[in-house]
From TrEMBL:
Keywords: Cell membrane, Kinase, Membrane, Phosphoprotein, Transferase, Transmembrane, Transmembrane helix, Two-component regulatory system
Annotated localization: Cell membrane
Protein name, per record: histidine kinase
First-tier enzyme category under EC: transferase
Cell inner membrane listed as a keyword: no
Enzyme Commission identifier(s): 2.7.13.3
Gene for this chain: creC
Gene3D superfamilies (UniProt xref): 1.10.287.130, 6.10.340.10, Histidine kinase-like ATPase, C-terminal domain, PAS domain
Matching PANTHER family: HISTIDINE KINASE, SENSOR HISTIDINE KINASE YKOH
Amino acid sequence: MKIGLRILLGYFLIVGLAAWFLLNVFVAEVKPGVRSTLEDTLVDTAELLAGVVADRVRGGALEPSPKLDLMQDYARRDIEVDIGGVIKRRLDYRIYITDARGIVVYDSSGKDAGKDYSRWNDVYLTLQGKYGARSTRTVAGVDRSTVLYVAAPIRDGERIIGVLTVAKPLSSVQVFVDRSQRKIMQRGTVLLIVSLLIGLAFAWWLARALGQLMRYVSDVEAGRKAVLPSLGDNEIGKLGRALHAMRTRLEGKEYAEQLMHTLAHELKSPIAAIQGSAELLSEELPPAEFRHFLDNILSQNARQKQLIDKLLALVRVEQQQGLDGAEAVDIGALLRQVAADAAGRLQQRGLRLGMTLPPVAPLVRGDALLLRQAIGNLLDNAIDFAPHGGEIGAAVSASGDAVRIVITDAGPGIPHYAAGRLFERFYSLPRPDGGKSTGLGLPFVREVAALHGGAIDVANGERGGCRAELTLPLPLTL
C-alpha cells in the first residue's frame, strides 16, 4: 500500500473515530439534557403552585378557590406559539393534588379525582419528606409516550398535608430533541466530509511530492538522466535537495576517478608513440624515415587532441541531467546540415548520401547543437565502415509520438562479439582502411538521446551492413 493511501486512511480513521465519539456523546446527551432541564422547570413549577394552594388544603379537603378554577381553565386553553420554528398549539401541563393519605382531591384533567395515588413514587416519596418524581409510559413499550411527574409537598407549617404534582409528557419536548439530534448529525456529516476532503488534498499533495521524489530516486538508481523536481521549500523539498547534493558529490567523485583512470589508460599509447618517434628523431635519419616519424608524432598528437575534445564533450552531456533552453528543431534541416558537414569526407571516399525526408519535416524539442553532433557521429561511423564508392542512407520518418532518424551503410556489419559493447567508452572496432576511432562517438549519442527522452539502437541491417536508429519523442505542443 502506498504511503499516501496509508496516511489518508490513518487520518480519516482518526477523524472518523473522533467524530463518531463526539457525535455519540452529543446525541446521547441531548435527550438526558433536555429531560433534566424539563425536570428542573417542573420542580420550580410544583414548588410554586404548592405554596399557592397550601392555604386551601385543610383537614384533607380542598376548599374552593378562584386559583384552582384558573388551573382548571388552563388545561382547556388553546394557544399558537412559534418556538424556534416549532409551533406549539396546546398546553401540556397536568396538575393534580392529593391529601395526606395520597387520595387525589384535584385533577386538572378531571379524570382521576378520588383515586388512590399513594403508591406512585411522586406522591409516596413526597409524603415521606423526600424528593418525589417518576416517569411513566402511557403506552407500554413506547418510550415517546413517557410522562414526567414531579411533586412538591403542601405544608401546614412543618406538617405535610398533601402533595401537588405537575406532569408533562416528554413528547412535548421530543421535537426539540429530534431537531437538535438531526442538526448535530447533519453538521457532523458535513464535518466528516470536509475532513475527508482536507485529508484527500493533503494525501494527494504528499503522495504527489513523494512520488516525484521516488521517481527521481528510481531514475538515479537506474542510471538514467534525472532532474530534481521542484518540491517547494518544505521538508520534502529540503530532503530532495539534500539527496541531489549527496548524489552530485558522490557521482562527481566516482566519475572523476573513473575518468582519470580511463583517460590515463587511453593516452598511454599515443604518448608512447610520440616519445618513441621523438627519440628516433634525435638521431641522424634518412629524410624519408625522418618524415615518417615526424608524421607519426603529428598524427598521434592529433589523436590525443581528438580524444580529449570528444571526452570533454562526452563529460558535459553525461553530467547534464536535463536540457537547458530547449527549442523547436527541424529534423529535415538538421539532417541537411549534417550532410553538409560531412560533404568533404564523403567526397574523399567516393560515397553517395541518399536522404529520404517526409514532405513536412517533423519538429522535435531539444538542443540543435547536441543533436547535430549526435547525428554527425552516426554518419561518421557509417562513412568509416562503408565500402569505397558505396552509398549511405539517411532517412527521417515520423509515426505516432516519435520521429526516427535512420543511418545505414553497406559495410561489414557488427561482429557478434562486439554487439554488447558498442556503447562502452573507448571501445571501437577496427576500420576497414586501418583507421582508428576514439570509441566515444556512440556513448555520446546515447547520452544525447537520453537527454531528449529518446533512444539509440545500433544493429546489423537485414540486407547486411549496419543500421543506426535514433528515436526522439515528438512534443505534444511546441
